[in-house]
UniProtKB/TrEMBL annotation:
Pfam families: GvpL_GvpF (PF06386). Its main location: other. The keyword DNA repair does not apply. This is GvpL/GvpF family gas vesicle protein. The keyword Lipid biosynthesis does not apply. Residues 133-153 are annotated as: Disordered. It comes from Streptomyces mesophilus. Keywords: Gas vesicle. It comes from the Bacteria. Residues 133-150 have a biased composition (Low complexity). PANTHER family: PROTEIN GVPL 2.
Length: 260
């Protein structure tokens, strides 16, 4: 059976040992391939699953994709405890060890630059959601149904819409201020597109979807800053995730967000 090389991340050489029972995709053992002062963390995978055409087909299989993504993330998370890995995209494969070495050689300068940027840092995610339902009094739906006239009904609808408009404006101002505060505490930031609620299944409208590259030694202060904002504004929800490997900062073509 032909085997390909599945690469999870590129790191600087590190001496700390990974957990003994850590395995990669499909339960395969991990290997470190060093070249030019860089280390590629990889495992072997069957070409029958990870060749170009089979992989395209598998990406339509949600169960397969979920299992592979979990295995991929588990390796990255383990690496994050011992070094600052540069995560590669899910399904990054090469024909053989020589192909991996060629990648490290050809992209070495860029990889070293990215590793220098994230050195000593982790990524935190911060989201702000506006929830107009939380602002609506429990009696409002009933009152709307008991309106004495069409004019009363329209007036109540207009009042609710004006309340929602005020919430969106307040949410935008709150999110902008929070992002500015967090940016001052981060080495780099990324503003992602607001999440689609149908895909994320999160309630409310996503106003802020930010990623922040923060030094490990500054992370406690960063987390405390976010925690202080929770429950600060009625109808707004703040969510913090992390610490993660620097996924949002591993793309050399990604533009840094410095303003709202």
């Amino acid at each position: 059976m032909n085997e390909l090389r599945y690469v999870y991340a590129v790191c600087r050489p590190f001496e700390a040992a990974l957990q003994a029972d850590l395995v990669g995709v499909g339960g395969a053992p991990l290997k470190q391939l060093e070249h030019g002062g860089l280390v590629a963390v990889l495992s072997r995978v069957p070409e029958a699953d990870f060749g170009y055409e089979p992989l395209r087909a598998h990406l339509e299989d949600l169960d397969w994709l979920t299992a592979t993504a979990r295995a991929h993330q588990a390796v990255i998370a383990a690496l994050t405890t011992v070094t600052c890995p540069l995560p590669l995209r899910l399904g990054t494969v090469f024909r053989d060890d020589s192909g991996v070495r060629t990648m490290l050689e050809d992209e070495g300068d860029q990889l070293r630059e990215l590793l220098a940027r994230i050195d000593g840092c982790v990524e935190w995610g911060v989201k702000v959601y506006a929830e107009p339902e939380a602002q609506q009094a429990p009696s409002e739906p009933a009152a709307a149904g008991q309106a004495a006239s069409g004019r009363d009904y329209l007036r109540m609808r207009r009042t609710r819409q004006q309340g929602a408009d005020r919430l969106w404006a307040r949410a935008d101002s709150f999110a902008q201020e929070l992002h500015t505060d967090l940016t001052a505490r981060a080495a780099a930031t990324r503003l992602h597109r607001p999440q689609n609620p149908e895909l994320s299944r999160a309630t409310g409208r996503n106003i802020l979807n930010g990623a922040y590259l923060v030094g490990r030694s500054q992370s406690e202060e960063f987390v405390e800053c976010v925690e202080r904002t929770k429950d600060q504004e009625p109808g707004l929800r703040v969510e913090l995730t992390g610490p993660w490997a620097a996924y949002s900062f591993s793309d050399p073509n990604g533009d840094e967000e410095e303003a709202w």
